[in-house]
Specification:
The chain is α/β, with parallel strands linked by helices and 369 residues long. 36% of the residues lie in helices and 17% in strands. The chain has an 8-stranded mixed β-sheet with strand order 4-5-2-1-7-8-9-10, sandwiched between helices. A 6-stranded parallel β-sheet has the order 13-12-11-14-15-16, sandwiched between helices. It has a two-stranded parallel sheet with strand order 3-6. Helix 9 packs across helix 11.
C-alpha cells in the first residue's frame, strides 16, 4: 500500500510552527509522502492593502514533503449552502489537479477543515479529522448553525476524530457522533527549556510578556489596566496584531515587538517576571488549548490567565476579573523562585512535541497499516 498523506490545513505553511506543521513534517520524516495544503483564501482578501498575491504552486520543501500554496475560493462558503457547494468543487478540483503532477494518490486525508465533507469523501481515502478550535464561534461571514452541520457531517465520515486537551471541545465532537481521541497541544521542549543550562546565571527583568495573536479575543482593556497599575514593569507584546492597538501603545511601559521566531522570543521569556494569557471569555476561548501555555511553562515562567480553555487543569494562576488578574500577577511574581521555575519546566516535558508526534504516528500507522 502507498503511504501518501494529504494534510488539509487551516493555516498557511510557514506562518508559525503550528500543530499542523509539526504533525505533517514528522510523518514525512517517518516513511510517508506528505502534501500540505495551505488554507485557501477568499477573493475578499484582495481588498486588503497588505494582502500579498501568490501564484498557486506545488512546492517541494524537503524530501517527501510538499506544500500546495494558498489559492482563492468564493466567500460565504461558511454561510450559504450554494456557495459551500461551489467552493467544495473548486477546492477538490484544484487540489487533485496538483496532486496529479506528482502522481500522488492519498490513502489518508488528515484534515483541520470541516467545511467540505463531500470533498473528503471524494478523495476515496481514510480520514482523520483533528479539531483544534470551535469553528462555529469564529466571527466573520459565517452561519454558526450551518458550520456546526458541516462539522457534524465531517465527524460522521471520519475514521478517526482527534481533538486537543479541551473538555468542552471533546463534548461537542462526541455529541456529533464520535468520541475523539484527546491529544493536547505541545511544546518544542528542547528549545524552550534550554534556559535550564544557564539557570544559575539567569537575570530576571521586571517585564511582563505575552506571545501570540492579538485579535478580537485579546483583552486590550486588561492590558491597559495592568500597565497603569504596574508602571514599574514593562509589558512586552510579541506576535501579529489583527486589531488596532495604537491606543494601547500610548502607554509608556507597553512595547509591541511584532512577530518574532520562537528562537528569538524564547530568551525573552526566560528573563521575564511573568507571562500572561489576557483573553476575553467567550464561546471561542472557552474551547481553546493555548500553545503559549506550554511554551511559558517550559520556559519556567509563572503564568496568569483568564479562565479560558483548559488552563485551570495546568499549574497556572487563573483570574476572573481585571482586579483579580492584577493581584494574581503580583502574587505570581512574589512567589516565584528558580526552584519553582525548574519544577514548571519539568512538568512541561510531558507535553513535548516528540511525545505528541509519536501518538499521531501510532494512530496513522494503525489506520493505514
Amino acid at each position: 500500500m502507498t503511504k501518501d498523506v494529504l494534510f488539509l490545513s487551516s493555516n498557511r505553511y510557514g506562518d508559525f510552527p503550528s500543530r499542523k506543521t509539526r504533525f505533517s513534517k514528522y510523518l514525512s520524516e517517518n516513511g510517508f509522502r506528505v502534501v500540505y495544503v495551505d488554507s485557501p483564501h477568499t477573493y475578499l482578501a484582495y481588498l486588503k492593502k497588505d494582502f500579498k498575491v501568490e501564484k498557486i504552486r506545488l512546492e517541494k520543501v524537503s524530501e517527501n514533503f510538499y506544500v500546495l500554496r494558498t489559492f482563492p475560493i468564493l466567500p460565504f462558503f461558511k454561510k450559504y449552502p450554494l456557495f459551500n457547494k461551489l467552493d467544495e468543487e473548486i477546492y477538490f478540483r484544484i487540489i487533485t489537479s496538483y496532486l496529479n503532477e506528482i502522481s500522488f494518490k492519498p490513502n489518508l486525508v488528515f484534515t483541520y477543515i470541516p467545511f467540505f465533507p463531500q470533498a473528503l469523501k471524494r478523495f476515496g481515502a481514510k480520514v482523520i479529522y483533528d479539531c483544534v478550535d470551535d469553528h462555529a464561534s469564529f466571527g466573520g461571514l459565517i452561519n454558526p448553525q450551518f458550520v456546526n452541520e458541516l462539522e457534524r457531517r465531517t465527524v460522521k465520515i471520519s475514521d478517526v476524530v482527534i481533538t486537543t486537551g479541551n473538555s468542552l471541545l471533546k463534548e461537542k465532537l462526541t455529541a456529533f457522533g464520535k468520541a475523539p481521541i484527546q491529544i493536547p497541544n505541545g511544546v518544542d521542549y528542547a528549545l524552550f527549556s534550554k534556559w535550564l543550562e544557564i539557570k544559575d546565571a539567569l537575570k530576571i527583568k521586571k517585564q511582563i510578556v505575552y506571545v501570540g495573536a492579538i485579535s478580537s479575543w485579546f483583552d486590550l482593556e486588561l492590558i491597559k489596566f495592568l500597565s497603569e497599575h504596574l508602571s514599574d514593569f514593562e509589558i512586552l507584546l510579541i506576535g501579529f496584531a489583527s486589531v488596532d492597538i495604537s491606543a494601547l501603545l500610548t502607554g509608556k511601559n507597553i512595547k509591541f515587538l511584532g512577530k518574532l521566531t520562537q528562537e528569538s522570543f524564547a530568551p525573552i521569556l526566560w528573563e521575564s517576571s511573568v507571562a500572561i494569557i489576557p483573553f476575553k471569555l467567550n464561546d471561542l476561548t472557552k474551547k481553546i488549548d493555548p500553545l503559549k501555555a506550554y511554551e511559558y511553562l517550559a520556559s519556567g515562567l509563572p503564568v496568569v490567565s483568564t479562565p479560558v480553555g483548559n488552563v485551570s487543569s495546568l499549574p497556572i494562576y487563573v483570574a476572573q476579573t481585571k482586579e483579580e488578574f492584577l493581584r494574581k500577577v503580583e502574587l505570581a511574581i512574589s512567589e516565584d523562585s528558580i526552584e519553582k521555575r525548574v519544577k514548571r519546566a519539568i512538568y512541561a516535558k510531558e507535553f513535548s512535541w516528540e511525545n505528541r508526534n509519536r501518538q499521531i504516528l501510532d494512530i496513522v500507522e494503525e489506520l493505514i497499516h
